[in-house]
Amino acid sequence: MGNAGTGGASTCGQVLPVTYRDFKGYGEPGGHSDFEASARMVKQTDGGIYKGWNDVGCGLVQATLGADSKPVAYTGMPDQNDGLMVPIGAGRQRRAVTGTGCWTSSNQSPTGVCSIGTCEKWTFAPPTWSIKDGSSFAQWYNTTANVNMEIPGELMLTETSPGSGISVFDSNAFFPIDNKGFGNTPGQSHNYSFTTEIHVKFKYQAKQKFTFRGDDDLWIFVNGKLALDVGGQHQALEGTIDFDLQASALGITVGSTYAMDIFHAERQTTDSNFRIETNIQCFEPSDVVK
């Protein structure tokens, strides 16, 4: 099917080549089990319909990329307290978010940033899975007839001010494939239920950082190892890769060039946020066979 990264970027710079894949949500004819959880009509303890929670999403994928440079779903047993029945496909652990911007039942209009916080042993059982199984997840980032439609694109980072060294892409209405693929989601003014796949290379220099804030899922692998886990269906959550602090775990050395593989998914109406901020100045497209 060609190479990922056919969106036009061919030299070192601030343009990230993207492969989008459009899906139909659960409940639509030909809809996918992992998209639009609300359509599954699973009831929560408060009687509402489950759409996803901030708590769910840690460890939905394995800690290393597969041989095809794609993420692999974690389908093992959850790390849970005795007596719990956490469903397979809810993630290895629960997420404990932090920050003034985190949604709670008593503060449903928070202001500020909500951070991904930490991953901890499950202390409760979510009402359903987030990813049905390994086979359903394998379709997210592989073009599959009658399941998804592939759409090339690109993301352009912009320096916040000349000479700052800080570049950003920021959208609180991230709908890059409106009126494309299967078309806009029925009953909505945008095309939801899509994935975003980016493969680039960068030279690791001291003091580099890469911050993402958004919903839904986001996984970033560096040197084939999971560097940032923002998985799950949740409000806009923020996490940062500090390359110096994580260098040992990622197996990276200053001055060397490494692959960065980015995987995102928009899985639940009606919000779509996507923000990147980084002081990495030079990205090169990385050829990955799809």
How would you portray this structure in words?
By secondary structure, the chain is mainly beta. The protein has one domain (3-289). The chain is built from two helices and 17 strands. The strands form four sheets. Strands 2, 6, 9, 11, 12, 14 and 16 form a seven-stranded antiparallel β-sheet that branches. A five-stranded antiparallel β-sheet has the order 7-8-15-10-13.
How far from one another are the termini?
A: 6 Å
**Spans of at least 5 consecutive residues with low confidence:** 1-10
Approximate shape: globular
The count of DSSP E runs of length 2 or more, i.e. the number of strands, is 17
> What is the mean predicted local confidence, pLDDT?
95
Q: Which percent range describes the beta-strand content?
A: 25-35%
Radius of gyration: 18 Å
Estimated helix fraction: under 10%
Quaternary structure annotation: single chain
Domains, number: 1
Number of helices: 2
Largest sheet entry? 7 strands, antiparallel
Query: What structural class should be given to the helix and strand makeup?
Result: mainly beta
**What series of H and E elements makes up the topology?**
EEEEEHEEEEEEEEHEEEE
